[in-house]
Amino acid sequence: MALGNHSTITQFLLLGLSADPHIQSVLFVLFLDIYLLTIMGNLTMMLVIRADSHLHTPMYFFLSHLSFLDLCFSSVTVPKMLKDLLSEIKTISVSGCLAQGFFVLISAGTEVGLLSVMAYDRYAAICHPLLYGQMMRKQLCVQLVCSSWSLGVLNAFINIFLAANLDFCEKYTINHYSCEVPSLFPLSCSDVSNNLIALFCSSLLHGLGTFLPIVSSYACIVSTILSISSTSGRSKAFSTCSSHLTAVSFFYGSAFLRYLMPTSGSSLELIFSVQYSVVTPMVNPLIYSLKNKQVKAAVRRTLGKYLQCSG
C-alpha cells in the first residue's frame, strides 16, 4: 500500500489523553495496570479452556478465540500509548499510523463477527438443545471463526487501502492516543469523500450484518426462555447467555458510535475508543469467569493440577 506521491508529512503528532505531566503519570499507572490485567486475564482464559476437557465445547472454542482477539486488540494500541505517556514528543510515522489503523480495524471487525457467532451458538444451545451437536459441529465452528477473521481483514484492507492513497500536506496533529482511520481524514489535503463513504458503508454493513443476527438470535432465545415453566429453568437458561449479552453491550455501543459519528476531536471520541479498545478486552475475561460456574470450576481444577504437579 503505497502512500500518495504528493504527501509532505512523514509523521503525525499524537496529542494523547492529556498534556498535563502529572495526569500523564497517573494515566500511565492506570493503563499499565489495565494492560497487565488484560494480558493475565485473557491468557488465563485461553490456558484454562485448552487444559480442561470439560470446556472443549463450541461455546468455549469461540470464547478462547475471543480472548486471543482481545489480547491482540489491546496490544495494538496500549503499548504505544504507554510509551507516549512517558515521552515529551508523541510522534508516529505515517506508515506506522496506517499500520496501527489497519490492525485496529481487523481487531474490531473480527470481534463483532465473533460476538455474532457466539450469539448463534447460544441460540442453538437454548432453542435447539437436541440438535446442538449437529448444528455446532467442529467443522462449522472453525468456518465461522475463519469467516469472522476474513470479514475483519477485508473491512480493514478496503479502508486502509483508500487511506494510504491520501495526501497529507500541512496538518499533522491527531487529537487522539492512537491512529484510527476517522482521525486521519481531517488531516488530509485530498478529497476524502470516497473514504468517508467507504468507512460509513463498511461500518454500517459490517455492523448491521453482525448485529441483526444477534438481535434475531436473542429474540428466539427470549421466546424460548419465557416458554419454560419452571423459574429455575428460566434462570439457568438466561445465565448461559447473560455474559455474552454483557460483552455485546460493552463493545457494540462504543465501537459503532466511534466509527459512525463525525470526527470532531472531542473527549467523547476518546472515551468511546478507550472503552472498546482498552477496557472491553480487560473486562471480557472477568465477565465470562465471574458469571460462569463452569469456568470457575475449571480454574479450580487447573490450579489443583498445577499445585499437585509442583508439589
From TrEMBL:
SUPFAM superfamilies: Family A G protein-coupled receptor-like. It is a multi-pass membrane protein. The chain crosses the membrane at residues 23-48, 60-78, 98-120, 140-162, 196-225, 237-258, 270-290. It is found in: Cell membrane; Membrane. It comes from the Eukaryota. Keywords: Cell membrane, G-protein coupled receptor, Membrane, Olfaction, Receptor, Sensory transduction, Transducer, Transmembrane, Transmembrane helix. Its main location: membrane. InterPro entries: GPCR_Rhodpsn, GPCR_Rhodpsn_7TM, Olfact_rcpt. The keyword Transmembrane applies. Residues 41-288 form the G-protein coupled receptors family 1 profile domain. The keyword rRNA processing does not apply. Belongs to the G-protein coupled receptor 1 family. Putative odorant or sperm cell receptor. This is Olfactory receptor.
